[in-house]
Amino acid sequence: MKSIIFIFLGGLLICSAILKGYAIAIGKFNLNYLSSDPRLSLLIVDWEIILGIWLVLGKNSLVPWLFSFLTFLGFAITGFVLALSGFASCGCLGLLQVNPWIMFTVDVAALLLLLKIRPALKDVYNIKCKQAIPFALVIIFGITLAILCESTQFGQNIKAKIRGDQVVLRQSKVNLGIGQMDEWLEHNAEAVNWSSETVRIYGGTSACNFDILQDCPIDIKPLQEVKLRVRLHLKNPEGIFVKQEAAFWVSNDSGTIVWELPITLIGVLSENPAHFNEVDK
């Protein structure tokens, strides 16, 4: 019974990591409302794979049990906070849109299963280390390679060429910080031109609460990186957050629009959510 539960939870973590990994590979995933840094997403994917393999291969040991309990506890707290904040999806299954209340329920069920099979302290070192070490080495290599790809210009250039991206945004989600209702927040979005020709970027308009301030249109030379100022109007919140979907448009030398660079702007309201209706009045 204990081994079955360990294998089930390990498989659950591995499946979750695969879904996140696929979304990261096609450039359409970031942890919803938690961070705009893709490296955090990669680290969580790697941890889910390591822990999942550990649970599937290991016996009823206290160490993987403890790590599993802390992991699912963290997931449950995150899902609960996002659910209370009114988000439609937690972003924890990649491209699949899942209500945070559903994932919170799944995480709580996993915690209850772990509590039911809590191992004895004497089993703390009882794990198949010889089988786990090769997988751990592969994961460590993968983590190192992923961080290098995200942290170095060379790695990002290779990744852009593999995907076929010519112009990319460093971050598909930009956190503009905390502000008051009806306030405008400002930040920078970083764009990189990996192509061999100069391109021109156009911005949005204030009609969609998204505004490029004096920066667009702007020409970007090959292998050049530029910072584009953006701003977000804090209104129509989702819980304590204000989220705005927008896009940059990229044209070639002939002036034809050839790429769309979607971007999500996120701001946090310092007002108490209970007072939203009063503020709107």
What would you note in describing this structure?
This protein has 281 residues and is an alpha+beta fold. The protein has 2 domains: 150 residues, no CATH class; 117 residues, Immunoglobulins (Immunoglobulin-like). Helix content is 44%, strand content 22%. Strands 2-9-8-4-6 form a 5-stranded mixed beta sheet, with no helix packed on it. It has a 4-stranded antiparallel beta sheet with strand order 1-3-7-5, with no helix packed on it. Helix 1 runs antiparallel to helix 2. The chain is globular and about 65 Å long. This is Methylamine utilisation protein MauE domain-containing protein. It is found in: Membrane. One of its GO terms (cellular component) is membrane.
Categorize the overall geometry. Answer: globular
* Tally of alpha and pi helices: 7
Question: How many extended strands?
Answer: 9
Strand order of the largest sheet: 2-9-8-4-6
Oligomer: single chain
Terminal residue distance: 57 Å
Order of helices and strands: HHHHHHEEEEEEEEEH
Low-confidence stretches: 205-210, 272-281
Rg of Cα set: 22 Å
Strand content: 15-25%
The residue-averaged pLDDT reads 72
Major sheet attributes: 5 strands, mixed
Query: What structural category arises from helix and sheet content?
Result: alpha+beta
Overall helicity: 40-55%
Number of separate domains: 2
